[in-house]
Recover the amino acids of this structure.
């Protein structure tokens, strides 16, 4: 199973219900270190996966919390204004979306980590989505 397929299976299982590591191992056929590694990668991609500690008699479970992040809200605004594949300036975006420039820069860094940022021009502070 490829890394991407394993990540998709983990997300699918966590979307259905909070899951123990043992359950994810059985459901995916992968080993525990691989599961933990893919969960770490998913977190880096912006997925909000938390580990809920169990009591003395309960096992810890992973839970996917589905809530919109600033990046998700930003992408919705880009979509609403149909600004994909358009050369944009950080300052222009900050003004248009009523955000601080620093917040726009942070979002661009996160988009770059997620692989959604196509091109960045450092000299002119312009992006191409």
């Amino acid at each position: 199973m490829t890394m991407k397929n394993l990540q998709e299976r983990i997300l699918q299982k966590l979307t259905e219900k909070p899951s123990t590591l043992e359950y994810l191992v059985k459901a995916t056929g992968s080993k525990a270190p691989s599961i933990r590694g893919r969960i770490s990668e998913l977190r880096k991609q912006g997925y909000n996966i938390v580990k809920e500690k169990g009591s003395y008699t309960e096992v810890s479970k992973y839970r996917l919390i589905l809530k919109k992040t600033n990046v998700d809200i930003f992408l919705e605004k880009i979509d609403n204004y149909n600004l994909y594949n358009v050369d944009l300036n950080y300052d222009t975006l900050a003004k248009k979306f009523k955000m601080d420039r620093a917040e726009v820069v942070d979002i661009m860094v996160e988009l770059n980590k997620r692989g959604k940022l196509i091109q960045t021009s450092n000299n002119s502070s312009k992006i191409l989505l």
